[in-house]
């Protein structure tokens, strides 16, 4: 028998685990607004790194924007920061200025 170096082409599996160095593997911080009743709305922030102290971030956000808020524990999504009012732009600017998240890792959702 003759030994030949034959390379079998591998197929790309889109559902395989993504390496952290891959371009599509960014962990985004999602900032959403939810309509409550009437003119009232709620801003939610999810996707921050687990190493961060959510309570300290919340304390600074509440003091900076003069609003109330809390940290909610969700089974699937983990910890979520909730703030009163539409604070999407304020929160995104705060996270970038504080150096917690890069600007291209933030997704702002809502109307």
TrEMBL record:
Domain SUI1: 29-99
Family: Belongs to the SUI1 family.
Keyword Phosphoprotein annotated: no
Protein origin, superkingdom: Eukaryota
Matches recorded under InterPro entries: SUI1, SUI1_dom_sf, SUI1_euk
Swiss-Prot/TrEMBL keywords: Protein biosynthesis, Translation regulation
Keyword Protein biosynthesis: yes
The protein's name in its UniProt record: Protein translation factor SUI1-2-like protein
Single GO biological process annotation from the record: regulation of translation
Taxonomy of the source species: Eukaryota, Viridiplantae, Streptophyta, Embryophyta, Tracheophyta
GO molecular function: mRNA binding; translation initiation factor activity
UniProt xrefs under SUPFAM superfamilies: eIF1-like
Function: Probably involved in translation.
Organism: Morus notabilis
Name of a matching Pfam family: SUI1
